[in-house]
Amino acid sequence: MNKFKEGFLWGGATAANQFEGGWNAGGKGLSTADVMTGGTHTTPRRITPELEEGTYYPSHEAIDFYGHYKEDIKMFGEMGFKTFRMSINWSRIFPNGDDLEPSEEGLKFYDNVFDELKKYNIEPLVTISHYETPFGLTKKYNGWASREVIDCYIRYCETIFKRYKNKVKYWLTFNEINCLTIDFGAFMGGGILVKEGENSDQLRFQALHHQFIASAKAVKLGHEINPDFKIGCMIAYMTLYPYTCNPDDILLAQQKDQIQNGLCGDVQVRGHYPGFAKRYFEENNIKIRMEKDDENILREGCVDFYSFSYYMSNAVSTDPEKQETSGNLLGGIKNPYLKASDWGWQIDPKGLRWTLNHIYDRYQIPVMVVENGLGAVDVVEEDGTINDDYRIDYLRDHIVEMNEAVKDGVDLMGYTMWGCIDLVSASTGEMKKRYGFIYVDKDNEGTGTLERKPKKSFYWYKKVIESNGENLE
Q1: pLDDT at position 192, please?
Q2: How far apart are CA 459 and CA 295, in angstroms?
Q3: Residues in the chain with pLDDT < 50?
Q4: Pairing mode of beta strands 305-309, 438-440
């Protein structure tokens, strides 16, 4: 009763825009990530529609998985990974996004990656679109704001589903699709450049509708190409607590949970817009343009499983005086009962148990935690060791609570820790904010040897996997 199921998918997670590099190798086109400059915790990244000479773009080299994939996958194999979550860089397959024919060189690269994973019996879990929309689609259509992009995405899906139908079983249609419910997600998730004076809400939620349709069509197409495919959604779960038992705080937490988390889950799992969306759209002057068959498409393209990212929880309050703190995609009110990471993200393992139960109670389909981890400053000691006990503590506490959720009755498929190898931060472009079991010699300015070395957590996670989550010491 208190064990993870046999065949539980232990592993790690990455994204092409944050670790692959090779930004212009093999005929690859520009992605939205490739035009985002470096930044820091206090200095936001800039979007430059034209590349600027002398400006640092972290995704261009990232940690060069493109050139190191054999070495990296070997290390994942040493840890005993059962699965590896990665994304395909859309513009490596279709450089402009709307090309009619794919790049054979791009397709071959991922063939090689999947073949290498198979050598170590590692099951790929592939995110089809992970914050790397081809920039050509932004320039031509303003990204997902335009319905034309749906056909480009489906052409891309058909290409990779057919090419890798015997190499990949698990797919995610969009990474953190609900990021489009907040301003931050317009460019990152939708490839949208919002002009001054434009209604950002209207653009983002229309783009979200286009992604819903694209996802549903991809699910249906994928099942036709290979009925054994398991295709999931991926939500950035923004776990929210009311700051007090004031009914206003409780209602506010519920309303935010509905729009930021529930809307995308409901459409992708249940196949229709939830009732609360209608009022939200009316009150925010959002008019979703649907075509006549859209409701049928959504109904016919429900996902097989629900995956999500979880890093922390936040509190919400109707009191404007409360102190705010930062978080993944969205901040909130500082919770006096929780500690925080170096970047101000509140650490709440029990919140993961709450979230797993909340999701499973709502949808009753298999669930997977596909991002969870601690961004921290790691120090290489004089003897070359990296003693990241703080990361081990964070992960251990979250795995304990996942186990509790399994005992609660949650059907949990697997767990892929985020940033299993150090990579570029999506929000800040930093390397200093490290997540990995594997240290990569590179700094915030892009200099370093790219040498890989295991941290203390590398050996700890190997024992966790070997024991199917029983040995957490």
Answers
A1: 98
A2: 49
A3: none
A4: unpaired
User: What confidence score (pLDDT) does residue 463 get?
Assistant: 98
Give CA–CA dist 203/334, Å, rounded. Answer: 31
Contact 211, 144 (CB under 8 A): yes
Among left, alpha and beta (phi > 0; psi -120 to 50; other), residue 62 is left
Residue 27 tokens, joined? 């005929």
The amino acid present at 33, given as its one-letter code, is A
Q: Under 8 Å CB-to-CB from 300, ≥6 apart: which residues?
A: 216, 220, 271
Residues 6+ apart with CB under 8 A from 213: 150, 294, 297, 298
d(CA 386, CA 11): 21
Nearest CA among 228, 223, 189 for reference residue 207: 189
State the pLDDT at residue 138.
Answer: 98
Structure tokens at 247: 């009914």
The alpha carbon of 272 is separated from its chain's Cα centroid by a whole number of angstroms, namely 23
Say how far apart CA 314 and CA 24 lie, in whole Å.
39
pLDDT value for 330? 64
Active site residue ranges: 176, 371
Q: pTM for this structure? A: 0.97
Distance CA 59, CA 372 (A): 21
- Secondary structure class of 316 (helix, strand, coil): strand
Domains present along the chain, CATH in parentheses: 9-466 (3.20.20.80)
C-beta of residue 204 within 8 angstroms of C-beta of residue 212: no
